[in-house]
Each structure stands twice: as structure tokens, then as C-alpha cells.
Amino acid sequence: MKPFLYPTIMILSFVVGQAQASGECCYIAVGIVDSSCDLCTPGSCVGTDVQCISSTQNNCDERFASWCPDDTGAPTPSPTSYPSYSPTAEPTTSPTAYPSYSPTAEPTTSPTAGPTTSPTDSPTAGPTESSTEGTTDIPATDPVPTSTSAGGGGDPHFKTWNSTWYDFHGICDLVLLDDENFANGLGLTIHIRTKDRYPYAYIESAALQIGEDILEVSSFGEYMMDGVSKVDMPAEMGGQFLVDHEQKSDKEHTFTIKVGESEAIKLSTFKDMVTVMIENGSSADFGTSVGLMGKFGDGALLARDGTTVIGDHNLFGQEWQVLASEPQLFQTSSQFLGKRCVPPATTKGRRRLGVTISKDAAEKACDHHKDMKMQDMCVFDVIAMGDLEVAHAHGAF
Question: Which intervals of the chain form a coiled coil (predicted)?
Fold first, then answer.
């Protein structure tokens, strides 16, 4: 092995303590200097597993160096204080305190005889003779959440079952959620219809089916139950769920379907924008659901085949366009039925409107959101649509 030359400035940075007498050595390893060593002799001072720099001028600033012996011989019975600069002749039987600077001739034999029941705070010194007993306090993998929230609204933005957000601006009817096992086989389907607004889109209406009953909610709180407009509320769906209607103002309406003690499906409108959110959804009720909200638990964006993961949000949105072969929940047919979703049109009007709302004004309108992701989406929508009141629509998220 060729000598390794340390520049003068590097050697000086390592030296601490008194200068060495003529013929003594500075032992250097991992930035530590032992100024008490005598000679560059294998086994002296801190041993043969460190680098020694020869000194003949009462200091350690010479521009030449030599290594301690290349071969450290047989492995040490216990971890060394510093890493070896050359591989041991045979692999060590337990891990050393620091990594070796070169690989061993053969793999080390340090796996445990059996799995540990829970992770250790730091690496173990050697293999365990047998597996430990007892249950783990911490699961080996992330558990599937027992409840969570998901839905869509705004520009529109979609929230998956693992609280990840993504955008899809295609204009068409879309399957937000479908779960044939909901309520012991009663079934739940939610379709949304998006509409063009400048180069962006928004959810214009939503249709929700439980059993044979269909609730359709559209802009400014207009609604129909099984094709009948403005039926008395609360109304029953599927023979066991009640839907209630709350009107906060002429611009704000909320339709709530209680699913369980804390679970609820909410369809909210602010002006002409519709938001659909499932709050505190459980795996018992939504565990087999599919659609734009992804797979329950991990939020995987699965295709209709139930196994293929689609990484592109635009392709994923198109995957869940309502097909002509599927039930049509809206009273009026989609103009894009049997056609691909189309992107919003770009107009000069949008660009002109976009500059009428400053970022500062939009941020002030959206400051009720404590979550930064929600605030960013709100600011984006306010500026894109040129309407400060759009910030109120995000209160439904």
C-alpha cells in the first residue's frame, strides 16, 4: 500500500496537547490524537488499528506519513475502539464499534438466531442465542388507520384516505367513491360532476346513492331526492340513514348523512362550488371502497382492476371517469358520457381576472386555515378564480 500523505494544514488540525519529542508519533484516528504514545510500533499506545504520523521535529506537521501494518491479523475478541484501516484476515463474530474502512475477506456472521420482538434503541453487540419472547409494544409496520377523512372540492382538490392531496381538472362525471359492501351490502356510490371555469374546473354537483335512494346536490344548495326537488328534510336514505339540511346563508348549505356515532358524509355548497367530504370514515364502513379517494388506509391510487397503482394524477382521474356502462346517478346526462374527460379551456378572461386578486389579499382571506397545505390550496383557488369569497368554500374541507 502506498503511503497516504496528509497536507500540513490537516495534520495541524488534529494535534492537541503537547508537541511530541523527536522520534515519537502522533496517532490519528477519527479525528482523535493521543499525544502520549511513544513510538510507531505495532501494539503501542492505542494499537495497530490506527494511522500513525512520524515526527522528528517535535511536532506533527511533516508532509509525509506511513501507515501502521496493513494486516491486523486475526479478528479481535471484542469490538475495537477505532475502525481497522485494513480488512481483518477473517470476519469478526460481532459488529465493531465503528465501520471498517475496507471490506472483510468474507462476510461477517452477525445476524441474530431469531427475530427480536421489538426494535432496539441501538444496534445489538452480537447475535442473540434465541428469539425473545413476549409481545411487541410497537408494531413492525404502520397500522392501517381505523378512521380518517377524505373527499374533494375546490379547484378541485382531492384528499385520499391517507390525507394526501392531489388535483385533477378534467371536465366530466367522476366516481368519487364506490363501495358495494357499505352497510352490510346496501351499497354506497358518490359521483361528482365538474365544470369548466376559465382554465380551471370545480365541482358543480354531486350525486350520492345509498341503496335505491339518490340525493343530488348542486350549486347554491339546490337539491333533489330521488328526482324530486326540495323534499322535506330530514329525509331517509336506504331505509336506515337520515340526511339533514342546514342553510347558513343564501350562499352556504350543508347536507349531512350520519353514518355512525362520529362518521358522517357531508355535501357542502358555497355559491356554485360543491364539496364532498367523508369525516371519520372507518374501515368497517369504507374499507373496501374504490374511486378518486384511493384505497382505504394507505390511499394508494388504484386503477379499476384493484391492483395497478397509477402514479400520474391526470391518468388516475381519467381512470375513474363514470363509464356509460355504470349507473347514471344525475338526473341529466353528462355531455361527456362515452367521451374522455376534457381539460378546462384557457381564456384571456382568466388571465385578466387572475391579476385582480393579490397574493397578500388571498392569504388574508385564507388565514383561517391552520394547515399550510390547505392554506396554499385556498390561496391558489382565490387567485385563480378571482374571487375572495372562494376562501369560504374551503371551510368545508
Answer: none
